[in-house]
Design a protein that fits this description.
Blueprint: H1 11-16, E1 27-34, E2 40-42, E3 50-52, H2 57-67, E4 71-77, H3 94-105, E5 110-115, E6 129-130, E7 133-134, H4 136-153, E8 157-160, H5 167-177, E9 186-191, H6 198-204, H7 223-236, E10 240-244, H8 250-259, E11 264-268, H9 270-281, H10 287-301, E12 305-308, H11 311-321
Parallel strand pairs: 1-3, 1-4, 1-12, 4-5, 5-8, 9-10, 10-11, 11-12
Antiparallel strand pairs: 2-3, 6-7
Helix pairs in contact: 4-5, 5-7, 7-8, 8-10
């Protein structure tokens, strides 16, 4: 008789044979940087998450550094928005300021900057409008301009998230032309038009003012199409790819990790985070156990790294339990 339970008998035996591990150095922590001064504003729909002005950023950076987390993902919230999102590529924009600040204070921290227009446009869409629709090709030069601006400020990686066709090619060409050949492009290649993004849109103040994003973000029903998106971005020069959201799309993470020889990043998004926090606050679940189970599931599916708002808590639990 095969007795599978032999290798489950004690905690130390279980650790010896454990197949998937969540490591602190594989966690990426998102930060919301808002223009202004002396701002630390809690995001109501995301307990424990705040918007920070650059002059208040150090208090969060200290916690990140103490937790042993080495990578952050920046989202900017400008004071003024316009039709073409000019604040995104302003050399003194809020993200550019944050990049320079973090680079000066924490030179070894890996700084990734989200490249999109939705936080900066008055209409809240991820590209330039033409005839009431997002114009893919008019948007591409601006995405390249944003990426170059971030690179000039000292970013380590740029992460285009707008789901514009050929955005990676445009950004890679723009970076190379300006001499930033060593800046990796981390593409949100498989970004689905999901209901899990609601709390993020509160945090980033990026909800579309009309319509939705289904004409450019992916249909949740389409897994094979996600693989085509990833393949195209890799042909155009993407160095890593992101699947977003994570929990309802573990099949996409699994398939892409098996098919493509590049790191796949799972984005454990705001709605996934908020649901766990809400249930834990009610006493319905064990927060630590659920979070670690979710993150482990993403690693088991093939994710090399995880972008998660749980990162600070998870890092503490990993240290505490020695897992």
């Amino acid at each position: 008789m095969d007795r599978m339970r032999r290798l489950r008998r004690t905690e130390n035996i279980r650790k010896m044979v454990r197949e998937s591990h969540v490591r602190i150095d594989e966690l990426i922590y998102p930060l919301f940087i808002i223009e202004g001064e002396d701002i630390c504003r809690p995001v109501e729909s995301m307990p424990g998450i705040c918007q920070y002005s650059v002059d208040r950023l150090d208090e969060e950076l200290e916690r990140i550094d103490k937790a042993g987390i080495s990578s952050v993902l920046l989202f900017g919230i400008p004071a003024c928005k316009d039709e073409t999102g000019t604040g995104a590529y302003d050399e003194n924009g809020v993200v550019q300021q944050a990049i320079r600040h973090i680079r000066a204070k924490y030179p070894d921290m890996v700084i990734i900057a989200d490249v999109c227009l939705c936080e900066y446009t008055s209409h809240g869409h991820c590209g330039i409008l033409s005839g009431g629709e997002v114009d893919n090709d008019l948007t591409l030069p601006l995405l390249a301009k944003i990426a170059v601006s971030y690179a000039g400020a000292g970013v380590d990686m740029v992460a285009p998230s707008g789901m514009m066709d050929h955005m990676v090619e445009s950004i890679r060409t723009g970076l190379d032309k300006e001499g930033f050949l060593n800046i990796p492009v981390v593409s949100y290649s498989a970004k689905f038009a999901s209901g899990y993004y609601g709390p993020f849109r509160d945090a980033a103040q990026s909800a579309p003012q009309f319509g939705d994003r289904r004409s450019y973000q992916m249909d949740p029903a389409n897994g094979r199409e996600a693989l085509r998106e990833i393949e195209q971005d890799l042909r155009e020069g993407a160095d890593m790819v992101i699947a977003k959201p994570a929990m309802a799309y573990l099949d996409v993470i699994k398939e892409s990790s098996m098919r493509f020889n590049v790191p796949v990043i799972a984005y454990n998004v705001s709605g996934e985070y908020a649901m766990v926090k809400a249930a834990a606050a009610k006493g319905w679940i064990d927060e630590k156990r659920i979070v670690m189970e979710n993150l482990t599931g993403m690693k088991r599916a093939g994710a090399k790294m995880i972008i998660t708002y749980h990162a600070l808590d998870a890092a503490g639990w990993i240290r505490e339990d020695g897992i």
